[in-house]
Write a structure and sequence with these properties.
single chain, 462 residues, Rossmann fold, 3 domains, five-stranded parallel β-sheet, 14 strands, 13% strand, globular
């Protein structure tokens, strides 16, 4: 893969000279910027292995740019250039964080040697970061021994060896992402990329450019070619999370990609072949969206060659004890806390809770318990679930309500409902109030007022 170099100099002839000098001799691609401001704009759009920067430039000079780079991209390798090369400039550049210093005019052999050394430094830094990521990567397998989960495991094993497109359905927080990862990890593609894409978080035009890539000049601020996620996932798996939220235009392009096994970057006239397995997920009723003309029927059938439906936590309550054990072990270690367990009273309460937010909600409740519990056992007072919010059978208000006056019973019931309902929505969105308001189909301000009234803190879910 070619090294990406950004050459910054207000003299355009100098950036072209750097391009002509380096590209034939080093396996690299040189992008040109003519000011510090332009360089920062380009860096905001794409990643580079090395920045070569002139010191004396109008406006933002090289030292100012170097200072900005070290703040925003602390690991960036920077080589400084100056026509006024002297020991003082070199020492100053190195002290400010530059990797090396080259005087202008430069000898071709000298600059090629120094740039190769700088690129080697960038490569080693990148490899070290990747190794650290691999070490820190959490293994979060699906957990469960219930009959409902055994059926899920059987289906995962059935589809893993093939390349068929899989659609994973289920409520928010049931583990659709973990299911997709499990399929990939058990497949022949396990040593190739697994790229998750959270579809609802990106506006449609940005999602399209992220998925398919673009050519330099395809739109404003497209300063260079960008590799799309489908190309990055070649020979591996791409996971399209919450596919039900994408618009008709992207649906059409994805349908074509599945059919033709080709992607066409924005602004390009040629399609590129890719070998990618697609796994998608949704918490929505896609057949209902098809009936409402919001989802393409042909796209749905291409996605759901095999479907895996994940059970909600309330339908697999026998898994709650082992889920608690695994989640507590994980988060106690992560937060540098001693190992903790839940009391029998808490476990009983957890197994009777409706779990609108499923495993994600359970995880957030346990994190809350770890933080608030003083000893090694999490008690009822340590978790954000009230005893009176246990399941009620229809038509039976239960002893807690029957013993109260009407107004007090009504307020108690509403308080319990609001806590359970809004906590579940905040759990689904990891404390994002704006997204939770959308899920509630209400204004953000209205949701905040309810949260304030019932003392619901979104920070507990982050």
């Amino acid at each position: 893969m070619k090294a990406e170099i950004l050459a910054v100099d207000d003299e355009k002839d100098m950036t072209r000279l750097l391009q002509r000098t380096l590209e034939p001799e080093i396996d690299c691609c040189v992008t040109m910027a003519y000011s510090g401001e332009m360089a920062l704009n380009i860096l905001a759009q794409a990643s580079f292995d090395l920045v070569i920067c002139d010191i004396k430039m109008p406006g933002m000079d090289g030292f100012e740019l170097l200072e900005q780079l070290k703040k925003k991209y602390p690991d960036m390798t920077v080589v400084m250039l100056s026509a006024f090369g002297n020991i003082e400039s070199a020492v100053s550049a190195i002290k400010k964080g530059a990797y090396d210093f080259i005087s202008k005019p430069f000898e071709q052999d000298e600059i090629i040697f120094k740039i190769q050394k700088a690129l080697e430094r960038s490569r080693l830094l990148h490899e070290n970061k990747q190794l650290l990521k691999e070490r820190k990567k959490e293994t979060r397998p699906l957990i469960g021994k219930s009959e409902a989960m055994e059926k899920v495991f059987e289906k995962i094993a059935l589809v893993a060896d093939s390349d068929v497109t899989v659609l994973i359905t289920g409520e928010s927080g049931t583990g659709k992402d973990l299911t997709a990862r499990s399929i990939h990890d058990l497949s022949p593609r396990k040593n190739k990329p697994f790229i998750p894409v959270n579809c609802p978080t990106l506006p449609e035009h940005i999602l399209e450019s992220e998925l398919f890539g673009y050519k330099k000049g395809a739109f404003t601020n497209a300063y260079r070619d960008k590799t799309g996620l489908f190309q990055a996932a070649d020979k591996g798996t791409i996971f399209l999370d919450e596919i039900g939220d994408i618009g008709p235009s992207i649906q059409t392009k994805l349908l074509r990609m599945i059919q033709e096994k080709e992607v066409k970057p924005l602004g390009d006239t040629k399609a590129q072949t890719v070998d990618v397995r697609i796994i998608a997920s949704t918490n929505q009723n896609l057949k209902q969206k098809i009936a409402q003309k919001e989802f393409r029927e042909d796209f749905f059938y291409r996605l759901s060659v095999i479907s895996i439906e994940l059970p909600p936590l309330r339908n697999r309550i026998t898994d709650i004890p082992i889920l608690c054990q695994a989640l507590l072990a994980k988060h106690c270690e992560k937060m540098n806390k001693p190992p903790k367990t839940v009391s029998g009273e808490v476990l009983d309460l957890l197994m009777k809770h409706p779990w609108v937010g499923n495993v994600r909600e359970l995880e957030n409740v346990l994190i809350h318990g770890i933080l608030y519990s003083k000893g090694d056992t999490i008690g009822v007072s340590d978790i954000p679930i009230n005893e009176i919010h246990k399941k009620k059978t229809e038509g039976d208000l239960g002893h807690d309500y029957a013993s109260l006056p009407y107004r007090e019973a009504k307020e108690t019931f509403l308080s319990g409902f609001n806590h359970d309902y809004i906590n579940a929505k905040l759990s689904m969105t990891q404390g994002n109030v704006t997204q939770a308001a959308k899920l509630c189909r209400m204004d953000r301000q209205a949701l905040q007022q309810i949260m304030k009234r019932y003392n619901i803190d979104p920070d507990h879910f982050r």
